[in-house]
Amino acid sequence: MADTPETTRLPPVGLLYDERMCNHATPDGEDHPENPERIRAIWRKLESEGISQRCVVMKAKEAEDRYIASVHSQSHIKLIRSISSREFDTIRRRRIASSFNSIYFNQGSSESAFLAAGSVIEISEKVASGDLSSGVAIVRPPGHHAEHNKAMGFCLFNNVAIAASFLLNERPELCIKKILIVDWDIHHGNGTQKMFYNDSRVLYFSVHRFDSGSFYPAGGDGSHHMIGEGPGQGYNINVPWEHAQYGDVDYIAVWDHVLIPVVKAYGPDIILISAGFDSAIGDPLGGCCVTPYGYAIMLKKLTEFARGKIVMALEGGYNFKSIANSVLACVKVLLGEKPSQGSFELQPFESTWRVIQMVRHELKQYWPVLTGELPQKLFTSCRRYCPLELNYSSSGSDVENDEEPSSTAPSIHIAEVAGDSLSLTLSKLNINEACHSASEPPSCEIVNGCAPWRTLLSEIDIWYGSYGSNMWKARFLCYIKGGKVEGMSAPCYGSRDTSLPKDVIWKTVPRRLFFGRSSTRTWGNGGVAFLHPDSCSSDKAHMCLYKITLEQFNDLLFQENSLVEKDIIGQQILSPLLGLSDLNYVSENKSLILQALKGGWYSNVLYLGKEDNLPILTMSCPLSDIERFKSGEIPISAPPKSYTSTLVKGLVEGKQLSEEEAIEYIKDATNRKL
Ligand code: X5A
Ligand code: ZN
């Protein structure tokens, strides 16, 4: 068995599930989105994927009144305690439920509510004490709408708030003095916000649909102006979305430009996540499209803080498949697995940047790291919001949707949207010349991080197949680390992510290698290598494969096509040249001309099959250039000496050919007619 972290030294990950929390249901079996199948679906998934077997599984126990009393009134506790007793019949329960907003009660409600609160307390205590490294409480009813003296929005007790108060007030010996609550449920957690509004020991952060105050729970509480009061000022952060359809890239942008910088400054001792998955793709109430991959990345970024002490507590989430897959992806992250790729939009909405800017502005006096305007350029190349594209019912009646939520349904192809406004620049270039124009001083160091697409593509590996000078590793690494090696007259910029290739292997491919064009900035006069875009079984080209990330491949494309210098605007490439949908396209069609690189010599991305289940990509000229090479319109020419010797070094160092054979190989490719 693999030596995974949970089998070695780390404390285990805790999972809490208890079938008794399924007893809370509508009194006469009426359909309701917040129903027992939600947590059953999650649990089944974790069992069938072998995940629960890798964790410590816990049963729930009821919260004690005195702990609940730290955030709820005695009368509320009493009501929830008695609501399921025999003195109350269905009619009376209905009448009381209808005095609240979006609440039902049955004979199982009371026990479920006490168990849900008790579960989050229990798992939080174990994570705080170090018995567990992290934990997930798969609970219902949810909690974040419940207020001091009222049930609301499917929530009876505020489970997360109760656990936070418990740690702060009942367990001083655990030294939990600062708690971060991250609420990624699509609804604003009005209850949690109120409970810690003037308390700096709890930083409440929520990202939710606001829709100008019309989205549930409606009103102004979820506005970004609500920043906390008294000693709690600056410790309440709301990121209010303007409409539906926000997805991975929008959330990652919020993480990179608001949440993570603040968390770094705050230094929480533990992180509680109000983990509602109604922000997930396919959710009937949320209308947004966060994928399991998106949740995994958001969670993984948080694991860097509070020494990894993270407790997730289920809040909303009404599409069984979406919530099961999302929780699965999250637990895998807590177990130390790398998030595995999904398909997603790479360009945030214009409103995403606008909302982020508003929030930063609102909070910068409390969190100086939020000072600095986002570069205006960010606002110019964005995806478009299409109000008609999503038609999820909000009635909740169609939650039992058997179709796999399609991660592409609400998305638009970037290229269509960005059109010719597509601007290209490198983020965090290795050389500083790019920063010398002091015209945009703060945005030169792009605010606290990099473009969200980079975060996403940096998790995806591909093989880059090199057939020219890049076969020499030292030369290829110039594109990664920046700089130049012997024989090159101009340095490379390097990639944002300068980590080395994860693997290097050699292959031969049935393609024609030839040398064309008559001079380059890097090598001087003479031709450089191209690969015929079509395969030909009688040809054989040597190829050195580097396992790099899709983000690094994008930086390579920029540099190979000499786009860097003329397109630097601030260290931020607003969109990738080759995103995930392009990767899918090229895998199916074997070739993709990147319109953004029109005129670049290597604008044609070729797919050469798979190795180790990862795609092999390279770049060459478009097929149409082949005719121009043949006709002499573009010259065919022998490579310059410096270039030839780089190729030879690569082939010899890679043990593919002897020096003589390598020279012969290049001669043949130079002289043989196309
Ligand atoms: C926990 C949660 C949603 C309530 C919606 C009421 N509540 N229409 O997601
Ligand atoms: Zn919700």
In brief:
The protein is α/β, with parallel strands linked by helices. The protein has helices at residues 37-48, 65-68, 74-82, 90-98, 109-129, 159-170, 190-195, 248-266, 292-302, 320-334, 350-363, 414-418, 441-444, 452-457, 473-481, 550-560, 564-567, 580-589, 623-631, 641-653, 659-671, and strands spanning 13-16, 56-58, 134-137, 179-183, 202-209, 236-241, 270-275, 310-314, 461-466, 503-509, 511-516, 519-520, 524-525, 528-535, 541-549, 591-593, 604-611, 614-620. α5 crosses α6 (159-170).
Structural write-up:
The protein has 674 residues and is of the alpha/beta class. It has helices at residues 37-48, 65-68, 74-82, 90-98, 109-129, 159-170, 190-195, 248-266, 292-302, 320-334, 350-363, 414-418, 441-444, 452-457, 473-481, 550-560, 564-567, 580-589, 623-631, 641-653, 659-671; strands at residues 13-16, 56-58, 134-137, 179-183, 202-209, 236-241, 270-275, 310-314, 461-466, 503-509, 511-516, 519-520, 524-525, 528-535, 541-549, 591-593, 604-611, 614-620. The protein has an eight-stranded parallel beta sheet, sandwiched between helices. It has a six-stranded mixed beta sheet with strand order 10-15-9-18-17-16. Strand 12 (519-520) and strand 13 form a beta hairpin. Residues 388-446 and 565-571 have low confidence and may be disordered. Bound molecules: N-(4-aminobutyl)acetamide and zinc ion (ZN).
